[in-house]
Design a protein that fits this description.
Number of strands: 9
Largest sheet: 5 strands, mixed
CATH architecture: Sandwich
CATH superfamily: Transthyretin/hydroxyisourate hydrolase domain
CATH topology: Immunoglobulin-like
Strand content: over 45%
Helix content: under 10%
Shape: globular
């Protein structure tokens, strides 16, 4: 069971390469535990957000957008973006369409 993502920079019409991404799992006590981190590749993808075999549960994907946009001289309105999902198992893909002033996400295939 795995979670992947694909980030597209809608301001530039390009993949968001070099964007730091972290995956956290909600523990039974309610705390969040980091279970993976990666950086998007040249195509804006992270094919596996964790090397662990993921269990079903609640996960939060954090996109560290501030450094990504600051490299282009932009001051982003959202310095980070967190997407929380209910993972029921199998393979989950979470695309993100990103700009310095907004974002959209959806359940991919």
């Amino acid at each position: 069971m795995s979670i992947s993502t694909h980030v597209l920079d809608t301001m530039r019409g390009l993949p968001a390469a070099g964007l730091a991404v972290a995956l956290h799992r909600r523990e039974p006590d309610g705390d969040w535990k980091e279970v993976g981190q990666a950086e998007t590749d040249a195509d804006g993808r992270v094919r596996e957000l964790s090397e662990e075999e993921l269990e079903a549960g609640e996960y939060r994907i954090e996109f560290d957008t501030r450094p990504y946009f600051e490299r282009s001289g932009l001051d982003p309105f959202y310095p980070s973006v967190a997407v929380t999902v209910n993972f029921v198992g199998g393979r989950l893909h979470v695309p993100v369409l990103l700009s310095a002033f907004g974002y959209t996400t959806y359940k991919g295939t």
